[in-house]
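Let's sit down with a protein and look at its sequence and fold side by side. Please make up or recall a protein chain and show it to me in full. Label the sequence line and the structure token line clearly, so we can match residues to local backbone shapes. Go ahead whenever you are ready, and we will take it from there.
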Amino acid sequence: MKDGLNAELNIIAGQSVKEKSFWLERLADFNTRTVIGYDITGHHPERRVREHTYCFSDKATVSLIRLSRASDAGLQVLLAASVALFLYKYNGSQQIVLATAIDRQDTDSVFINTLLPLITKLHGDASFKDVIVLMKGVISEALKHQNYPLHILFKELGLLEDKETHPLFDVGILLKNIQDSKHLEEAKLNFIFLFERIGNSIICSIQYNESKYSETTIASLVNLFTGLLDRVLQDVYRPLKEIPLLDDAGRMEVQLKMAPEAGDFPLHLAIPDLFRAQVAANRFKIAIACQEQEFTYDWLDHQTDLLAWKISRQIPKGSIVILLLERSIDTVVAMLGVLKAGAIFLPIETGTPESRVRYIIGDSQAALILTHSSTWQKMEQKGNAYACNMFCMDTDDFSEPPGDLPAVDAGSPAYIIYTSGSTGYPKGVVIQHKSCVNLLYGMNDRIFGKYGPGQVMGLVSPFVFDACMQLTFGALLFGHRLQIITNEEKSDGRKLLQSYDKYGVSITDGTPAHLQLILQSGAISASGRTLRHIIYGGDTLYKSKIKAFFELAGSHDLPMITNVYGPTECTVNATSFDISAATLDEVDEVPIGRPLPNYRTYILNEQGEVCPVGGTGELCIAGEGLTMGYLNNIHLTHDKIRYVPALKDTVYFTGDIVTLKNDGQLYFTGRKDRQIKVRGYRIEMGEIERQLNSHPQIRRSALLAKADEETTTLIAYYSAVNVTPDDLREYLVERLPQFMVPPYLVQLEELPLLPNGKINHRILPDPLTVIGSGPDNTSPENEIEQQLLEVWKSNLQLSNIGVNEHYFNIGGDSIKTISLLYDINERFNVHFNIVDLYRYDTIRKFAAALMQAEASAIKDDYDQEVEIAMDLLKKDILNDFE
């Protein structure tokens, strides 16, 4: 019978062209379900329903009945408009999607649909009267076009149902007087407004899933909803943006939960001043180490003075100095030397595409580049000459005794970090000394100071991340030892743990990707005995991963883990949350925590109102950590950093959507734009799309980011003439940093479109189903291919791999690449990087590149031997003449 019904519905769907067209147009811009934020997160398959019933006030009831002209249909419109307004204010989302039931029928027939979507878009300039008119039309049109089987349309649009959730709805609304509540109750909704008019009273029953909400939250939501309704009914022509969701008591509750913590820190001093104080106190203690190299505070002070003197003789105070350096002690010497010279350092990762380096040099108007001779030689070989002075730290002389160095003001810029830009170009974020000092003293209050003097801080973060500041200067400004963990030592979890043991690391940092590497190693229980605190940031930290870490670590003293959050514009970290093995079960998900000292946080909705506890909105940050602005970009600075009169504060609008929960902690829920994080790197999708679409033969492209608890993967879909994925990958590698090049490049004849002409991202195919229909069985043809095959098998945990299979198509990801490249470089004694893996992403291509590298090395050795022989011959000839 079910098969027969489905067949009949398919026939109806085929005949209902007009209805289908209507719903396709309505759902074309659907982006996400409207959800009232859950108290309890995680996987809770059992749906336990409870009800909270209350009665509207007499005043509200009279107003609603009068406005509806005592009509149930009119009352339905008013109540639906009220709920939509409430969710608009509470969630901070313009698009509201509600489920409602069809009107009650006199027959028990099987209906084509029992639920209908009410989709509205609200804006602050509209009045409640406008919302009523809008909702009346929405309900009328939904009923008019109810005879198209929506579940068939959901499949076409890629809105797939699962066992726990409806693909379109999470919140429902119904008036029992004219609708049958069983239709909503049968749906998998977590929150339903059930209204009923009984005489001159209006009753509301909130039906909710207690696996998602607590009674306290439901009571709070009822108070917010009824309070907003009372205010809006006073004047239905008042603009929505002028109607507050919170009353005075609600605002006070939020202020108390988000009360800032004051820190009495030496913000009048610059970084060099504070470093010199530590030199005086710890002159002959080890300040910095990398592998077997270690140097005292006295040595580091002297070296940085020498470099600062050299820099100050070449460029004016306040100039920008680019650090294009390999990961080493030299990088820290450069950072401190630049600051002592009164200049500003700007780190760029070696291996960054030449076009991007050139753009940053031009945009920043840098006066000097500090680099290594090996990097400079590579640039010369490629013919890359920059309009900027160059200084090689390993070959150029800076031994001249220093004279008086300039005084450095705490309010002057210290460093600039270039981050991905939504316009397609990176942008420079300027941070001053006192902001960095505030961060460091705040971290010392929260973490470093708990463990006493002489800690060993293992730096994992790259020097191009602003996150490196917290341990680099956190060590050197408080008398600790900075241990630089090399790229090889952090290439996989086992090596990382071994490095902690080897150097006695007690405090370290990293991103959740590094935690994943450690979990994959399975070696925790025998390692990390000295480790006392790990600071993770840059991406979502999942409770399940922390739990697995504590379980694998066994019963010995377990380190504390701190989840830190903060955009570059707010000096590394703005909030933090500590987690121990004893407290992990107290949270359902890991929050981003509370503000660090001298930071202030606000959650604002679309109208600039402070959001209630439990509501979602954009996180705005103020305080001593605020950036000076974007380098040479006044327009963007004024757009992102604004004075808000209602707050009487200047704030940075982060674009991050967060919730303040009853526990007083902030929880990250998503982005209001298309910014993502990959291995801690902040990426604007628009920058990648600009490069995709700049290819002259690309007709159309789409970029997706698919995230799970282990990693975020970029997938690019495109249609083009005569452009293979290999061609496109080569094109992107030359223009984007490696972390921005999508591992999956999927070529389609045409990209699927919605009726409005936009790309239908939901039905873009799984890349694995398009890239290859089955495994490649081509065997190795030589010893190098055979050795690479063994390395790939071990890395990917696969027993069968063909030499023409693409690494990223068979399970390779951004985390596995680190250990794969380390193993290849160790085995073949080469220096390939992740950019090379994107270029040579099959065993066959990588083997060819290895053989070419080997041939070049042999030629270089031969040329060197010839040069030595010629020098000896010249000496012999000269001796003969003498």
Summary: Residues 761 and 881 are 80 Å apart (CA to CA). The two ends are 111 Å apart (CA to CA). The first helix runs from residue 2 to 15. Residues 675-742+744-771 form a domain with the GMP Synthetase; Chain A, domain 3 fold (CATH 3.30.300.30).
